[in-house]
């Protein structure tokens, strides 16, 4: 398997500095700052990038579970809400809420929810993050 890379550059002090993050092949690049991370400033932040990685990984894992169950015409959309909280250890990602909606012709809600739970448990990013953060899942079929 290939090794994936990303990079970040920061200039200045913590509260007034600024930086950029970039994925290895340049697919994503964005600015970040103290304000974009801890307030409501413009730009991205590490927690959003974790959320994007988790949503993407989970969506792929769920699409595999659905296909393995015989589903076709699959569409999965996932949002990851990443909570950064102050703890005794310092700023910590404490919880990630995955919210997924699937369009899966011929599948019922119970089977979709069951397969989504399996995907959550087996998604590599979930496995990476679950020892340190609570991961919740809300899964439903589109109406």
Automatic annotation (TrEMBL):
Gene Ontology terms, MF aspect: peroxidase activity
SUPFAM superfamilies given in the database record: OsmC-like
Entries under Gene3D superfamilies matching the protein: 3.30.300.20
Pfam families assigned: OsmC (PF02566)
Region (Disordered) residue spans: 1-26
Coiled coil ranges: none
Domain of life: Bacteria
Single biological process term from Gene Ontology: response to oxidative stress
Signal sequence region: none
InterPro entries: KH_dom-like_a/b (IPR015946), OsmC/Ohr_fam (IPR003718), OsmC/Ohrsf (IPR036102), OsmC_Ohr_Peroxiredoxin (IPR052707), Peroxiredoxin_OsmC (IPR019904)
Name of the featured protein: Peroxiredoxin
Organism: Micromonospora deserti
Lineage: Bacteria, Bacillati, Actinomycetota, Actinomycetes, Micromonosporales
């Amino acid at each position: 398997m290939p090794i994936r890379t990303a990079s970040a550059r920061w200039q200045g002090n913590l509260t007034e500095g600024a930086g950029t993050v970039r994925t290895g092949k340049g697919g994503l690049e964005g600015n970040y700052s103290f304000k974009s991370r801890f307030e409501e400033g413009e730009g991205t932040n590490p927690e959003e990038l974790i959320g994007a990685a988790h949503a993407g990984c989970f969506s792929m894992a769920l699409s595999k579970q659905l296909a393995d169950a015989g589903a076709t015409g699959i569409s999965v959309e996932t949002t990851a809400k990443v909570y950064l909280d102050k703890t005794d250890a310092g700023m910590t990602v404490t919880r990630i809420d995955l919210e997924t909606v699937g369009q899966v012709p011929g599948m019922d809600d119970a089977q979709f929810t069951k397969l989504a739970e399996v995907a959550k448990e087996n998604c590599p990013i979930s496995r990476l993050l679950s020892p340190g953060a609570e991961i919740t899942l809300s899964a439903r079929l589109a109406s």
